[in-house]
């Protein structure tokens, strides 16, 4: 009888010990939260942020394989520059500005003055104003846009300086201009004749505020 009681007591003790141990395991404390940066706090699961999958509408169309595009322009008052930049953005093209060694002042640009620099330059087809911008290598360009303002119905003489200074090889050359209202006239042909190289396409006149949609349609029509 005494042995049975001792056995029962030991069994009870063992059971109590087991229960106590189980209770201890479940109440162990959680690790204290670590301090984290605001950025990390927002990213609660620590997985990397997903990449931005929205299409980037500002990315120009990728140039077709082997097609390298350059937009060259001269602009005395910024109008042609604006159009050139839009064409370059649409084409994913490089941009090169023709700057005169001697910048054109407001007085130089006064077409009401028969003695102004531009009136005199445009009155003499042999004048070749000096270019001040760093020379560019046309090597590798297969399509070259050339933009300028219309002065006295024609290309500024500095455009002739430019085309006579370079070999356009077999590149497709596309003249474009801005003006008060006049068309491109014979400017594209004059430039092609003076260049003596390149495959020159028919040029086109744009107003300063031309839309990207109009330019896009024009560019697509050239290809
Ligand atoms: C000296 C000079 C002559 C111009 N001659 C003409 C012209 O014959 N026909 C015309 O429509 N606009 C003419 N314009 C206006 C420019 O072609 C027009 O303002 C052009 O968009 C300016 O471009 P830019 O800002 O890139 O220099 C003339 C402007 C200047 C300064």
Describe the structure.
With 223 residues, the chain is an alpha/beta fold. The protein has a domain at 69-222: Flavodoxin domain (Rossmann fold, 3-Layer(aba) Sandwich), CATH 3.40.50.360. 35% of the residues lie in helices and 13% in strands. The chain has 7 helices and 6 strands; from the N terminus they run H-H-E-H-E-H-E-H-E-H-E-E-H. It has helices spanning 2-26, 38-42, 79-91, 117-122, 157-165, 187-195, 212-222, and strands at residues 69-73, 94-97, 143-149, 172-178, 199-200, 204-206. Strands 1, 2, 3, 4, 5 and 6 form a 6-stranded parallel sheet that branches. Helix 6 (187-195) links the parallel strand 4 (172-178) and strand 5. Helix 3 (79-91) packs across helix 7 and helix 5 (157-165) packs parallel to helix 6. The longest helix is centred in the first third of the chain and has 25 residues, at 2-26. It starts with a helix and ends with a helix. It binds flavin mononucleotide. Flavin mononucleotide (FMN) binds next to helix 3.
Helices, strands, pairings?
Blueprint: H1 2-26, H2 38-42, E1 69-73, H3 79-91, E2 94-97, H4 117-122, E3 143-149, H5 157-165, E4 172-178, H6 187-195, E5 199-200, E6 204-206, H7 212-222
Helix pairs in contact: 3-7, 5-6
Bound molecules: flavin mononucleotide.
Residues 75-81, 109, 111, 118, 149-153, 178-182, 208 line the site of flavin mononucleotide (FMN).
